[in-house]
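User: Just a sanity check before I run the rest of the batch. Below are the structure tokens for the first item. I only need the designed sequence back.
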């Protein structure tokens, strides 16, 4: 409705003013973005929901599904550090079901911080900036840390191939669980793979070669699968650490105690836990009530795959049916990709103005 859209844009301008007061430079990103590179950077969820079109001159293009990737690319090309940006505009995501709470086009207002000497302080600043922009709304806060999960995977006593597969599927909980159970020996190999590996020469009576893969590539993959099948199962105590981490759900202070206990069995969690403790201290200095924030070990695993550290969300306390009002997190690895190997510490978050207006109106 025109009145609702006007109200959302007015709220977006208010939020932009709030972020500009924190030193953010307002920037824009083109609605049409080159698809080839960006589709590889988004997770499967958005990749499947992107609006893609063909331009006769520019090739495959997409309507921006968010601002972060275009802003990161702009920043890395400019090479300016440190920097902070704010933006507002529509994003576009195709929906598979007719759900009014998941529109195909909606507003985002965002805040992105690049560089700086203290990532923990930057994490806390982004969280506090978004939370302080919405003081009149009853919001529930939750946070997590993808870095803890990645550290737990890296600490496993298993092959590099298994670790790489688990890292790749951290953002796909069902696939991650299936792999973890298989590598732990909890479930057998899929029947088809077991039958394939049992054949001495899989190329006998297979007919002519078709497709893009060469015979040498197929043989290399089969050899890799054989080696994986012979690898010993994951130690139960290491799997137990990951299980405990993923099931953790408690207020931040209690979650820290649990994580410190887990570190005794998994010293590899130490660096990620230290970063979390520093972040918590920075939040405390900003007056954030940590006892009111839930720490969830699996938080962020079904969102964008470029988050690789701190992740957070603000939710309408009385409306669990609504999407998050605000979300964000750290994405250092994304700067490495778009910076062609140059890494810049980066963290950001977005607010959905239309949801803010809806909640204020009691809809």
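Assistant: Here's the designed sequence for the first item:
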């Amino acid at each position: 409705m025109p009145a609702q859209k006007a109200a959302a844009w007015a709220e977006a301008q208010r939020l932009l003013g709030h972020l500009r007061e924190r030193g953010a430079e307002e920037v824009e990103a083109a609605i049409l973005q080159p698809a080839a590179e960006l589709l590889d950077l988004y997770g499967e969820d958005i990749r499947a929901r992107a609006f893609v079109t063909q331009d006769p001159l520019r090739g495959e293009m997409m309507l921006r599904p968010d601002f972060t990737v275009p802003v990161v690319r702009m920043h890395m090309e400019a090479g300016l550090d440190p920097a902070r940006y704010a933006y507002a505009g529509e994003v576009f995501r195709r929906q598979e079901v007719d759900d009014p709470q998941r529109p195909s086009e909606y507003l985002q207002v965002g805040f992105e911080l690049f560089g700086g000497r203290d990532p923990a302080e930057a994490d806390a600043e982004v969280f506090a900036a978004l939370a302080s922009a919405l003081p009149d709304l009853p919001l529930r806060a939750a946070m997590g840390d993808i870095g803890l999960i990645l550290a737990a995977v890296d600490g496993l006593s298993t092959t590099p191939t298994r670790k790489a597969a688990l890292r790749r599927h951290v953002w796909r909980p069902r696939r991650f669980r299936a792999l973890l159970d298989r590598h732990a020996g909890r479930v057998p190999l899929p029947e088809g793979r077991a039958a394939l590996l049992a054949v001495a020469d899989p190329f006998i009576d297979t007919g002519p070669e078709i497709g893009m893969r060469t015979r040498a590539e197929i043989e290399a993959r089969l050899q890799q699968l054989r080696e994986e099948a012979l690898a010993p199962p994951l130690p139960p105590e290491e799997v137990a650490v990951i299980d405990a981490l993923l099931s953790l759900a408690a207020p931040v202070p209690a979650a820290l105690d649990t994580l410190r206990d887990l570190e005794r069995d998994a010293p590899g969690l130490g660096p990620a836990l230290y970063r979390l403790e520093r972040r918590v201290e920075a939040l405390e200095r900003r007056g954030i009530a940590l006892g009111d924030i839930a720490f969830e070990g699996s938080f962020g695993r079904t969102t964008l795959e470029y988050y690789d550290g701190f992740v957070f969300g603000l939710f309408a306390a009385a409306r669990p049916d609504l999407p998050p009002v605000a979300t964000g997190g750290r994405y250092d690895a994304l700067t490495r990709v778009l910076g062609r190997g140059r890494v810049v510490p980066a963290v950001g978050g977005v607010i959905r103005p239309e949801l803010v207006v809806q909640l204020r109106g009691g809809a």
